[in-house]
Amino acid sequence: MDREKAVEQAISQIERQFGRGSIMKMSDRAVMDVPAIPTGSLSLDIALGIGGVPRGRVVEIFGPESSGKTTLALHIAAEAQKQGGMVAFIDAEHALDISYARNLGVDVESLLVSQPDTGEQALDIAEILVRSGAIDALVIDSVAALVPRAEIEGEMGDQHVGLQARLM
Fold first, then answer.
1. Domain that holds residue 14
2. How many C-alpha atoms does 13 have within 13 Å on its Cβ side?
3. Is residue 81 part of a domain?
4. In 86-98, which positions are buried (b, 16+ CB within 10 angstroms) versus exposed (e)?
5. Helix (H) and strand (E) counts for the chain?
6. Structural domain count of the chain
7. 121-142 confidence digits (pLDDT tens)
8. DSSP for 52-105?
9. Does the predicted TM-score (pTM) go above 0.85?
10. Domain holding 98: CATH number?
């Protein structure tokens, strides 16, 4: 059996098991025009290839402490608002500086802000906002601060292994 035939058989099996379109060749798919929210940094927008972060997708900004993650998220929030969008900010760290956000161009009067007590509460709020279809950008700052309820309510010596991973 040659390689091409083996690949075709594998594709056929995957499509039977997972449905048509679950695997494809890139040449079979038309190029999608992905709407984007600019980051506020022209060089970053160009590097991302679509003029910003993709709208309607999950984008994780990660890096070391004090590396500008929140600043970048606030720039994206400001740009989304400039395009007429509604933005929500879930401040799990309870550290959002409203004056700083305003100085970066965020319309803080229309910014929806939540400071949840637990990781579960934060994710429930995020889900409700996303399902509403009314939010153009949602910032969760930060994933590391999403502490599960069991960890908050538990005793000091309790086992909390993997609680945050299960929360995600």
1. 1-30
2. 6
3. yes
4. bbbbbbbeeebee
5. 7, 5
6. 2
7. 989 999 999 999 999 999 998 7
8. SEETTS------STTSSHHHHHHHHHHHHHHTT--EEEEETTS---HHHHHHTT
9. no
10. 3.40.50.300
